[in-house]
Specification:
The complex is a heterodimer of chains A (about 230) and B (about 525). Chain A is built from two helices and twelve strands. By secondary structure, chain A is an alpha+beta fold. In chain A, the strands form two sheets. Chain A has a six-stranded antiparallel sheet with strand order 5-6-3-8-1-12, with no helix packed on it. With about 525 residues, chain B is an all-beta fold. In chain B, a hairpin with a 5-residue loop joins strand 3 and strand 4 (about 45-50). Classes of the chains: A alpha+beta (about 230), B mainly beta (about 525).
């Protein structure tokens, strides 16, 4: 009986973890920015951020940017002065941001081509406390001015922000005439798959144990019935 | 009615910012005149009638006055009117700052023929006489003895009055270009045999109305108690009102300061004398000339509501004006009366309810005279922090006048946070401005409209070196004090939402945290 109880608890914990603490999916988005208004000379700069809403650097979300194409442009140096927090990579190999600090910012110079495109894979674990993690993207011209005046309500002229406030957050496109964001079929997180697998395994184990226990119980009862009162 | 309409409120905090004659031989000036002026650089500027390098009290030489700047670093004497060959120019107060950044004003005497001048002075103190009155002698057809401030007209020229001179020797209205070309627009007392029904001897300045016309007063003429006039830019003058139709002049007598146009379109001013009690009055006049006497001073026993808006010495030409605050009320000074008969700062509503905000000189007598000042002249202006700033003509520890700041007692706003749902966005960082940006969606969930100015306050903003860079102020009236806030344009109707942008500086890129509080109502944050 005790082992059945233990399994029920394990099952409940796994189910709770699966439904409450772990995102079922990432958000995967294909993003293309028309950069033809930028001069082809070096010095334009692209900035990606994944800032932590909790402020504690809880490292519960990750933005993976891959498959970069500069539309005929060239990648320049990573801006090590302004980049900070949990970042790695570059526009050639791909960029990874983790909200392991309050501010996690990757910046790199480039020579603009006709477009800048990439695939964004963003995990969607919601922070407690009311302020969500936020992914945002800026592009500046070689003079340091925003590439365009956008509808960014902060007035900072970001091109795109995503507030991780649900498992399926909305992409705020502040320059729809320049930026195209297309949602790609979500892919389960590896961690989620692992937990799901564990859960299913637990369920199977539970069934087996319960079946075994049931048989023992029946056998015992049958034996007891055979004893005369 | 007036007795019932005058009240006194406690807890107004007065701070003396500067006491004149603090330097040896009053080199820093003495006895300020007119109003303080808030310069475009955020510093105060003004004029003293006496003091400066020529001051020698033993020789009964009180100096020619100074032009000064009062900044957070203290007082700097920018020009000494005794530096010229003439140590008796009698500068009038309230210099006006032109679009070129220079200050323009008048002196009652001095200049080539010693009949007064229009001058320009740079913020650095370089003085130039633009025009000397009465160069032609005779009746001084171009005017004589200006006694008031200039105003900057919408055409870029300056406009003013002279108290004497003109074709009929009863004063003029003039226009002068920034380079000094003067045009006499009107000479008063065109009918001397009828005792100048169009007015005479203007002592106050002008105000340009929203209709483009100029409005002003004459201290005499009309029915004997002075007039209010309207003058078109081409000089066509219309007398809107003549004071003293009745012998006791209950409507007021001798309007001498400048008018101001209220937000309701009417013009508001004061008379030096008259009113029900003969000690001056506050009035308003519509552009059609209909006049309402809003308050007669000395309506309370011992004139605790104030008395006489001028110092009573010589002609009441030490220019004054009311000031309309953002609350729609008017603010001004009386030279005497109040709890200590040393003058008051008062507030009066557009309908005439007067409140005495401060009575000078709670401590009377030497050696400290009235350490907080006495005989406030020229009215008050609103400056940094929403405080009122002004001069006293005398008092202070040297009895030579002060610059003061009056912090009005406040009414806290209502906390309406529970009526709202606030949703925060994440933060983004602008690498060029080095600022964080965040937006808050504020939704009214109360079912009732929230009216007036609404303030979003950030309490306990952390880290310590973080600031809300787009804050418009910090709480001072609604505790806790010192929290930065931004305003939300009201009203916020039921179920309506508004998005508020916040900008933070955070030099160490530390974790930004804060609590939100929303204030509304008729009080102050």
């Amino acid at each position: 009986m005790k082992s059945v109880k233990d399994l029920k608890i394990i099952f409940a914990v796994l189910l709770f973890s699966l439904t409450s603490h772990v995102a079922l999916t990432d958000e995967v988005m294909s993003t293309t920015i028309n950069t033809s208004s930028l001069p082809v000379t070096p010095g334009s700069e692209v900035v990606f951020e994944l800032n932590d809403g909790s402020g504690l650097g809880d490292a519960n979300n990750k933005a993976t940017l891959s498959s970069f194409s500069l539309g005929g442009g060239l990648a320049g140096a990573v801006d090590a002065v302004n980049s900070m927090g949990g970042y790695s990579g570059n526009l050639v190999s791909g960029v990874a941001l983790t909200d392991s600090s309050f501010t996690n910012l990757f910046a790199q110079f480039f020579s603009a081509g006709s477009t800048l495109s990439f695939t964004l894979d963003l995990t969607t674990n919601v922070d407690a406390g009311g302020t969500p993690d936020q992914f945002s993207m800026f592009i500046y011209d070689p003079r340091g001015n925003p590439m365009a005046t956008t509808t960014d309500p902060t007035g900072f002229n970001s091109l795109l922000t995503i507030n991780v406030d649900s498992s399926s957050p909305t992409a705020n496109n502040y320059a729809p005439n320049l930026v195209t964001v297309t949602r790609v079929t979500p892919v389960p997180e590896p961690g989620t798959l692992l937990l799901l697998g564990s859960c299913l395994m637990s369920l199977g184990l539970l069934r087996r144990k319960v079946s075994s226990h049931s048989r023992s119980f029946l056998d015992r009862n049958m034996k007891q019935s055979a004893v005369p009162e | 009615l007036c007795v019932a309409a005058a009240t006194t409120v406690p807890a107004q905090k007065l701070t003396t910012l500067y006491t004149f004659c603090s330097q040896a031989n009053c080199a820093d000036g003495a006895y300020p005149v007119g109003s303080l002026v808030l310069g475009k650089d955020g510093n105060f500027y003004g004029i003293t009638g006496f003091g400066g390098s020529g001051y020698n009290k033993i020789a009964s030489n009180f100096g020619g006055g100074t032009f000064f700047q009062l900044s957070p670093n203290g007082l700097a004497t920018l020009y000494d009117f005794c530096d010229t060959n003439n140590c008796d120019m009698s500068p009038n107060g309230s210099p006006v700052q032109g679009s070129d950044g220079n200050f323009y004003g008048t002196t009652g005497v001095g200049g080539t023929s010693n009949n007064g001048t229009v001058f320009k002075i740079t913020p650095g103190g370089m003085f130039t006489i633009l025009y000397s009155f009465c160069l032609g002698g005779g009746v001084c057809a171009d005017g004589q003895a200006p006694r008031s401030r200039l105003i900057h007209g919408s055409d870029g020229n300056f406009y003013g009055t002279t108290s004497a001179g003109g074709t009929f020797r009863a004063g003029t209205v003039f226009k002068i270009t920034p380079k000094g070309t003067l045009t006499t627009l009107y000479s008063f007392c065109t009918q001397p045999l009828l005792d100048c029904p169009d007015g005479q001897d203007p002592l106050g300045g002008l105000v340009q109305g929203s209709d483009g016309n100029f409005y002003g007063t004459t201290s005499g003429g009309g029915r004997g108690g002075g007039t209010i006039f309207k003058m078109a830019p081409n000089g066509n003058l219309t007398t809107l009102y003549s004071f003293c139709g009745l012998v006791t002049c209950p409507d007021g007598d001798t309007p001498a300061g400048s008018l101001i146009q209220g937000t309701d379109g009417d013009f508001y001013g004061m008379t030096a004398f008259g009113g029900v009690n003969g000690n001056g009055a506050v009035f308003k006049v519509a552009s059609d000339g209909s006049l309402t006497t809003l308050h007669s001073f000395c309506s309370q026993p011992l004139c605790t509501d104030g008395s006489l808006p001028f110092d009573g010495i010589g002609p009441p030409g030490k220019d004054w004006a009311l000031y309309q605050g953002p609350d729609g009320n008017f603010y001004g000074t009386t030279a005497y009366g109040g709890a200590n008969n040393s003058g008051t700062v008062f507030k009066i509503t557009p309908s005439g309810k007067l409140t005495t905000l401060y009575s000078f000189c709670p401590q009377v007598g030497p050696p400290n005279f009235c350490p907080d000042g006495a005989v406030p002249l020229g009215g008050v202006i609103r400056g940094p922090g929403g405080n009122l700033y002004g001069f006293t003509n005398t008092g202070g520890t040297t009895n030579a006048g002060t610059v003061y700041k009056l912090t009005p007692a406040c009414t806290p706003d209502s906390d309406v946070t529970s009526s709202l749902a606030i949703t925060r966005s994440g933060l983004s960082y602008d690498i060029h401005s080095k600022q964080y940006g965040q937006t808050l969606m504020v939704k009214n969930t109360s079912g009732n409209s929230i009216t007036g100015t609404i303030y979003l306050v950030l309490d306990n903003l952390s880290p310590a070196d973080a600031t809300l860079s787009n804050a418009i102020g910090k709480t001072s009236c609604s505790p806790p004090a010192g929290s930065p806030y931004v305003s939300i344009t009201g009203p916020l109707n039921a179920a309506a939402s508004v998005q508020v942008a916040l900008h933070f500086t955070d030099p160490t890129n530390g974790r930004i945290t804060y609590f939100t509080r929303v204030l509304g109502g008729a009080g102050q944050p």
